[in-house]
Records
---
Amino acid sequence: MVTINANAKINLTLDILGKRTDGYHEVSMVMQSINLFDTLTFTKLDAEEGIILHGDVKGVAKPEDNLIYKAAKLFLDTYKINSGVEINLIKRIPVAAGLAGGSTDAAAVFRGLNELFEMNLGINALCKMAEQLGSDISFCLMGGTMLATGRGEILQEISAMPKTNIVLVKPKVDVSTAWVYKNYHKVQDSVIHPDNKAMRKSLIKKDLQGICKALGNVLEYVTIPEYPEIAKIKQKLSDYGAMAAMMSGSGPTVFAIVEDSQKAKDIVSKIQLDFDADVFAVETAEKNF
Ligand SMILES: C[C@@](CO)(OP(=O)(O)O)[C@H](O)COP(=O)(O)OP(=O)(O)OC[C@H]1O[C@@H](n2ccc(N)nc2=O)[C@H](O)[C@@H]1O
Ligand SMILES: Nc1ncnc2c1ncn2[C@@H]1O[C@H](COP(=O)(O)OP(=O)(O)O)[C@@H](O)[C@H]1O
């Protein structure tokens, strides 16, 4: 049996450089893994038993639609492995939250099956499969602090963010990533683009104030007008003394950077009373490879 913890991510920056001919958007974003995680365990089965998945994902009715199932099928088919596999999922990352919950589960499947079947595949081979299923899965394989370009699948390791306390607030609405990207053209002329160079410089200097100053996400301009609660959550987090607060990915989760774990606990206990939301105190996580 193999067990993998699949970390969620936040976007320290998210910039869109343009629309591509394949319909996706060209992005440039600094991504950071965090220690909020799903846990997946993998056990070999006989080939005729196929892929059996235990554990529900809200809104995903059929197991075959789960990214976990799709990733397992892709792995077994690609490497012509004549075996079944049983996968147990403990879901902790909120779904459709901007935290890459589905992508990180898929990445965990590639890592888990690589170990279970003793394939010794390198990160490049795993990333090749990842790209076929989703833009964020390659980052979830790598983890840590990365600059992601292309549609998100081209990764460059950059200076790691110092270990930092983060508070996550996920209001009880689900946001479709596809919908957010689809509506970006309506706001693109009025957005303030994040400064990725300034972010990278601050990361090199381990300057948390600088990192806070350089946070920026152009998708806020699409998601916040539709879900104004996100702006209220950002404001409250600042009022309660967070160093900075911003929406992650396509939203709706807001993450706040806070100076220590006591402050994080204080903020969690207060903000839980203000909003109908899932609230977590977490830390930044290190890379997987
Ligand atoms: C916005 C981000 C930021 O990290 O994260 P989430 O909010 O989903 O966590 C990502 O770009 C989400 O990546 P991911 O969730 O893997 O997206 P995919 O499954 O590849 O694509 C979902 C849909 O989003 C759109 N899409 C995605 C990535 C991209 N660079 N341009 C796009 O236009 C496409 O319309 C696609 O149909
Ligand atoms: N294992 C999974 N975990 C979460 N979502 C999944 C999974 N498999 C498929 N999905 C689908 O992917 C969509 C995006 O989910 P998720 O990755 O959690 O969003 P985001 O990247 O915005 O955090 C969900 O609404 C759901 O329909």
Note: The first helix runs from residue 67 to 78.
---
Amino acid sequence: MTEERKTDPASDSSNSSGKEAQGFWGEAAAEALAPEAAPARMRELEAKISAADHAYYVLDDPILSDEEYDRLYHELAALEARFPELVSPASPTHRVSGAVREDLPKVTHAQPMLSIHTETDFTAEGAKAFDERVRKELGLTDEDAPVVYDCELKFDGLAMSMRYEKGVLVLAATRGDGTTGEDVTANVRTIRTIPLKLDGVPDVFEVRGEVIMHRADFHALNERQLKDGKKTFVNPRNAAAGSLRQLDPKVTAARRLHFYAYALGECSAPDFAASQTELLDRFKALGLPVADMRRRVEGPEALAAFHDEVAANRAELPFDIDGVVYKVDDFGLQRELGFLSREPRWACAHKYPPEEAVTVLEAIDVQVGRTGKLTPVARLAPVFVGGVTVSNATLHNESFIAELDLCIGDSVVVRRAGDVIPEVVRVLHERRPEGARRFQMPDHCPVCGSATIRDEEEKDTRCTGGLFCPAQVKLAIVHFASRRAAGIDGLGEKIVTMLVDEGLVSTPADLFHLTHEALTDFITATKGTEKPVRRMGPKAAQNLLDNLERAKSTTFARFIFALGCRHVGEATALTLATHFGTLDALRNATLEELTHVDDVGEIVGESVHAFFKEPHNEEVIGELITAGMHWPAVEKKTTASAVAGKTFVITGTLPTLKRDAAKDMLIAAGAKVAGSVSKKTDFVVAGAEAGSKLEKAEALGVKVIDEAEMLAMLSAPGEATAATEEAAAEEPASETPQEVPAETVKAAEPVKVAETVKPVEKHEPRAPLPEPIQETLF
Ligand SMILES: NC(=O)c1ccc[n+]([C@@H]2O[C@H](COP(=O)([O-])OP(=O)(O)OC[C@H]3O[C@@H](n4cnc5c(N)ncnc54)[C@H](O)[C@@H]3O)[C@@H](O)[C@H]2O)c1
Ligand SMILES: [Zn+2]
């Protein structure tokens, strides 16, 4: 770091480590500078700071982040301390920065408006340093009582002075350069929380405080600006300044500004208040807005405690603050302490680490989530922001990168507020280096190498190797095993995690190769006791194996649903099963054939097509069939029964059928099955102990039937409706298992898969898959 500074004093963007990261900003750089380089560096810093001041105070459109500005400022101040003979009379450190807009009327302040000293140490040491300085100035020793302070929020807005004469608001002015400000009276009158009249105040009464904009209003304003094709504001502080320093009060009125009072300017009653606390209490009693978050305390520990407490509650405030302010409470002591150039000695700002910082985007990595979503992640040159060193930030998706117009190599503004994950919020396009590269989403999954597919609707890119990709395998197996998919009881997330982490299973097909020995094996416990433990108890293991055996006999629709192909919910699985009839027909279907299936459409069609095209998936599907998964042959079209198109609700315990089975039968016959009774319900099938649903049916006059009547209806012919049409209408387009209907089946007994069937060759696309035997019997 030191070396770097020596050889490249102009490098302003390397700001990552060491002393500076703890809040000592540019001072380290100043210490390291060779004396012969000082004059040039100081002139350079003055020019940079002046240019930044102009952009910030006059144009309300900063060209540096606050963190960069403060670092340059502190470097200059430290150089001035080290080389006093080189200090320029026009140095920006000597004046209250700020300037006035030429087209606004000017006001000379009756009393100058000053800045305040900033503590550069963000820790409790900052509070201690201030207290020590105050005690020293006052000549206090350890024997003396602690100093009493008033602690306040440091509002991040712009300072403003309001003059009341005989209780009437006659003038409002911005701080400007401290001596001369801008007359913004007409604009200030539009701020609703500011009283235009005050009762019982001295004849001349100047109230000073901060004009701010709430974060919510700031975001709304920027949205409006975007919509109207106007320039957006960088932060609420600049938006507040831009809104107050306006030629047209109507614009200010529309911007919803707020004001908080914290100081007294000229006042015709010299004894109006004896302390800062009393002043703020009196302001409040007069109806002036005063922030509640303030405290009168004694000694440096209490200052630091206030600093900490406000930090913890900062995110909940509706507006931005950039620190807290400590003020010696007693006005007598304040007078004694006096001023040092542009700053009172009796106050200091104790800031928080900046929430925004500038750094360089070094690379973009891609992570694959549990659902196969590819997420680009920014690899940043480490930067100290929001109190921690940040080197990664999520970039969400390709559109986010496009909207930011972000290239690898760009300088970016990173924001980290509170516990919120760091974000890239802006690109400094004017700093784009030569050779900056655009990012492209990879066309193959970085984890498993399967092809990726772009989902236009959801604006994201996904790995298509759902059955194979290690990033997705846990969720894929949990879904595969879920009740209305393969229906393997006892395979919840916890067991699946264990099986995958222990290396026993890496695809759903591996489940069928689990053995009792492997499941009940002893493993060394990693946490707590060193005693070896069993993976599973013998009984639980046997249950799982039995359930796996049972799950081999399934239906084609359940099988399709279990594969977990994106956008294929239960209803789509049923549609695909009835439309294609066989696994071979489905996996060989062209994109065109798929998108022409009723209720499938383009997005689902593309997803299914990509899924079956991916050799890795095909391999796993082959293994599932070889392992023995089978289903009865599918009857492609059905004659509708009397229940087709009707809506049923099932309630209570039916005498012979499980509710799930009854539901499957109804759906397969083209009925809808709803969860609650409404006017749209055609029939309620009630069993024993039916409760509120039955009452509701009776109240609404919905026909109530029993299981026998339902079965009779199922076997009675109805109008010619295709069963699938109705069922597919309620597509739950999600990845999570919901209610799945079975497809229309022939009442054939499941037959075992022929043992002679060979598994598909690995990685060989379109090699024939082993067929469940019923289908080859056709
Ligand atoms: N990004 C840029 O290019 C750029 C340029 C110039 C200045 N800045 C920022 O502005 C800062 C300097 O601005 P400054 O001179 O106004 O100093 P400051 O904002 O750090 O502190 C002084 C100001 O604090 C405000 N304040 C808020 N709450 C207060 C309270 N309770 N009591 C008293 N005062 C309170 C007042 O407006 C006062 O003028 C820099 O540290 C930098 O962060 C940034
Ligand atoms: Zn993958």
Note: Residues 368, 445, 447-448, 450, 463, 465, 469, 471 surround zinc ion (ligand 2) (CB under 6 Å).
